[in-house]
Design goal:
alpha/beta, Inosine-uridine Nucleoside N-ribohydrolase, Chain A, Nucleoside hydrolase, Inosine/uridine_hydrolase_dom, IUNH
Length: about 400
């Protein structure tokens, strides 16, 4: 344990995520030498938990960090469910994105691939190869978080880029959890975002907030968990809502810069699909370099947990206007230095990496360009034998 008079040599962090591919947000932390990633906890959201676990294990293999534990969280939200969400839609209208519950797009002209709807216990083969070295821990994510904040009181930052289910469980198990952590940074919520980029992708992603500016998926998946976490007595909470992300986009040009290195990370990133706002990357980047946030505001924030038209929407108050029902003051990021943010990603992701472990990247079929790193192939559906760029790591 660190002495009370000695600062830790590295910044300690736990990442709470619903990772659905080889994503820059996690790589940004792994490629930062000043950071010690204590663990990555998996939560259902964009995809089901078991698929999140597989993607996370494979990412750690390719990034050369097999020592980092991967912790399983619960499969389902605290109260919300697919059936309840379908009932809500029948009453109040269709949601743009429902994560693992999304069966099809409401509109057919989206730039995104078809949703990969499947049962919660199905894990499709991963396009970057299935994990063979890194395995999920047997320790539940909430218990791991509690153990870490007690081992390093006041030193562990928690970055949540998915639903807040694991954090709510940890807080419910031990009311001292939030006070023992150093801080919480989360990507979630929406206040009053507006489209800032003129691209097909930006126009289509604006559909999620143009008529429902207070709704955002990470919070909407598990509103009760979000409210528990937002009312916990954290030393500091930083909210990175949708609002600043509308100024960002993983363009082909930025992706080319980020994947320019002749490393496993570089080769894997070249298979990622461009076009998405950089929601999660903003959260990890703002934690790494707080000066990237160019506009901040203090607000008291909570989540609407009433099963009405605003279920899962963000509630916010300026200081002095809050009802005083447990909601906490949060540092809300409204804007970021996009150029500096992009340069940080390029610098860290093109830096040398530790040796990758496990199976090397599969070769792409002849003539096929970049393949989505977050799009799985159903088991048994491969049209050709898998080849590898070199021999499997020993």
């Amino acid at each position: 344990m660190t002495s009370p008079h000695t600062a830790p040599s590295k910044r300690r962090v736990i990442l709470e995520d619903d990772i659905d591919g080889f994503t820059p947000a996690q790589l940004l932390l792994l490629q930062s030498p000043e950071v010690e990633v204590l663990g990555i906890s998996a939560v259902s959201g964009n995809i089901w938990r078991d698929e999140v676990l597989a993607h996370t294990c494979r990412l750690l293999e390719l990034a050369g960090h097999p020592q980092i534990p991967v912790l399983p969280g619960p499969v389902h939200p605290l109260l919300n469910s697919e059936a309840a969400t379908e009932r809500w839609e029948a009453l109040y209208g269709k949601l743009v994105w429902k994560g693992a519950w999304t069966k099809h797009w409401v509109e057919g002209d989206t730039v995104q691939s078809a949703p990969r709807y499947h049962a919660h216990d199905v894990v499709p083969d991963l396009p970057l190869g299935n994990p063979g070295v890194v395995r999920p821990s047997d320790e539940p994510a909430a218990l791991f978080m509690l153990r870490m904040v007690r081992q390093y009181p006041g030193e562990v930052s928690i970055i949540a880029t998915g639903p807040l289910t694991n954090l709510a469980l940890a807080q419910s198990l031990d009311p001292a959890f939030a006070t023992l952590a150093r801080e919480l940074v989360y990507m979630g919520g929406s206040l009053n975002p507006r489209q800032q980029r003129d691209s097909v992708s930006a126009r289509q992603f604006a559909r999620e907030f143009v008529n429902s500016p207070r709704r955002e998926f990470n919070i909407r998946w598990d509103p009760e968990a979000a409210s528990i976490v937002m009312r916990a007595p954290w030393r500091q909470i930083t909210m990175v809502p949708v609002d600043p992300s509308t100024a960002t986009e993983l363009t082909p040009e930025l992706l080319a810069r980020m994947s320019a290195a002749d490393t496993t990370i570089g080769h894997a990133l070249r298979r990622r699909e461009p076009g998405f706002p950089m929601w999660d990357e903003l959260a990890t980047a703002v934690w790494l370099q707080p000066a990237l946030a160019t506009q901040l505001e203090t607000l008291y924030v909570d989540t609407n947990t009433a099963f009405d038209a605003g279920y899962g929407d963000i509630l916010s108050w300026a200081p002095g206007y809050q009802p005083g029902l447990g909601e906490q003051a949060q540092r809300v990021v409204h804007a970021v230095d996009v150029q500096a943010f992009e340069q940080l990603l390029v610098d860290r992701l093109t830096a040398p990496q530790p040796p990758a472990v496990g199976l090397p990247l599969p070769l792409l079929p002849p003539g096929e360009g970049a393949r989505r790193a977050d799009e799985g192939t159903p088991a048994g559906k491969n049209a050709m034998p898998v080849e590898y760029e070199n021999e499997p790591a020993k």
